[in-house]
Amino acid sequence: MKIGLIRGRHPLPVESYLIDQDTVEFDQAHRIAYDAMTSLLKNIEKRTVIQLYITGLTRCTLGAIAAFNEEAKKNEGFRYGNDGCILEIWEFNSQIGEYKTVIKFKQTDYVRTDDYVWGCSSSELR
Asked: What's this model's pTM, rounded to 2 decimal places?
């Protein structure tokens, strides 16, 4: 499932949007995204991979992640076994001109998808 964070902020390769309004008030951004992700999770099947294409409004991204983790704690299907949803965070990489993901959340755990941590490769950390 490919979902854009906010409709109208940037062209995104998605099927739908988490937030359908094209502007979000800064002081309400976290709550709007939190509520939208909570609603989405109540209406999807277990084992769904949610590819969330973020658009640069950090408060909305954090709200969506917070809701994903909170719902995972509440829902037995998310917490136990391998039938929980996965949330992938997709970001635009201007150096290569395409969207990439290096962060995934499964159940309530953070999972690195490749050799990158916080913008640098693990070889740079050694």
From this structure: 0.78
